[in-house]
Amino acid sequence: MKIESTHNEQIDILIIDYLSNQIEPTDKEYLLKWIDESEENYRHFANLKNIWDNTHTPFSADDIDADKAYEKMSKKIHKPRMLKPILWLARIAAIIVISTLSITIYQYLSTDDMSKEVFQEIHAPYGTFSNVELPDGSIVYLNSGSQLRFPVQFKKGERVVELNGEALFEVKADKRNTFVVCTQSLTVTATGTIFQVEDFKGDSIAAVTMKEGVVDVSILSSPPIDLKAGNRLCYRTSTNKYSIQQTDPYKWYAWKDGVMIFRNDPLSYVFRRLSLTFNVDIDLKDAEIGNHIYRATFRNESLEEILRLLKMSSPITYKEENRNSTELSKPRKIEVYSSKKK
């Protein structure tokens, strides 16, 4: 019998059984067929897998009340989908933050060496964004696919956090205890200000954008560079060079409101942002289309909606590579072509 709703309780139970390696062979076959029935079914499976991957804990399965966990999860999932996908997932991301906090507290209380520094790590699954309050009261907004690592309690004199990805920091003022953000390429030092940092591992661009106040930015081991409100420092790893320009800061952190803003940006940058946000592999088959200048604002649209709008408003066409049931954990692959090419 075909399942009419991707929110059917039976399907969600099968997905949980599948992810926990407790599914029966016949149920697995049924589930995989259901996933292949439609793109909507696949997206529902992928969303739940994202949540599962980021809330998986090191506890023994015997210590987990699966029925109780499912009941709580169901209350969040089984509601009319009145929200756009990003907003809906953002609410689910709040569950992830709470879960991660619980894991950290457990590890802290159960450690034999209470003087040992304990760290907490927060993940924002692809297609979501989330926020967390740090031990000093500072607020951090995490964008899709980003991770933040910080101690349960900051040491006296310095508040150090580690970032892989993109985040907006609202730093609580404290001149005696400097706030430091460390990434693979950058070190940002502040006392009390608001700024965004983006530096994904493996990406060719790292940047710091200032909303308020002043920060010092060191690139690798370089001397610190002062940035003020409205400044954006962009560092290209391929050339080992950086530039500083005046900008509208909101363009760069609008994602926390479910908004993607492009203002006279090349399509190569647009597709790069989509790749990072939705964890999709986008291959530009015609290099010249990457130089096409694009201007648009997307509010909470799904990847499918954005691609459809891009096709309508720019000289491109695209196709998605088909995947079988054994490749569901891999990023989707989309090929983009010039619509002008004969």
Task: Summarize the structure in short.
By secondary structure, the chain is an alpha+beta fold. It is 31% helix and 32% strand. It is globular.
Judged by helices, strands and strand pairing, the structural class is alpha+beta
Give the helix tally.
Answer: 8
Oligomer: single chain
CATH class type of the largest domain: Mainly Beta
- Counting structural domains, the number is 3
Distance N to C terminus = 45 Å
List the secondary-structure elements in sequence, H or E: HHHHHEEEEEEEEEEEEEHEHEEHEE
Mean pLDDT: 80
The CATH topology label of the largest domain is Jelly Rolls
Total number of beta strands: 18
Outline the fold blueprint.
Layout: H1 9-19, H2 25-37, H3 39-55, H4 66-77, H5 85-110, E1 119-124, E2 130-133, E3 139-142, E4 146-151, E5 158-170, E6 178-182, E7 186-190, E8 194-199, E9 205-212, E10 214-219, E11 225-228, E12 231-236, E13 241-246, H6 250-253, E14 259-266, H7 267-278, E15 280-284, E16 293-299, H8 303-313, E17 316-320, E18 332-338
Parallel strand pairs: 5-6, 15-18
Antiparallel strand pairs: 1-4, 2-3, 3-5, 4-5, 5-8, 6-7, 7-10, 8-9, 9-12, 10-11, 12-13, 14-16, 17-18
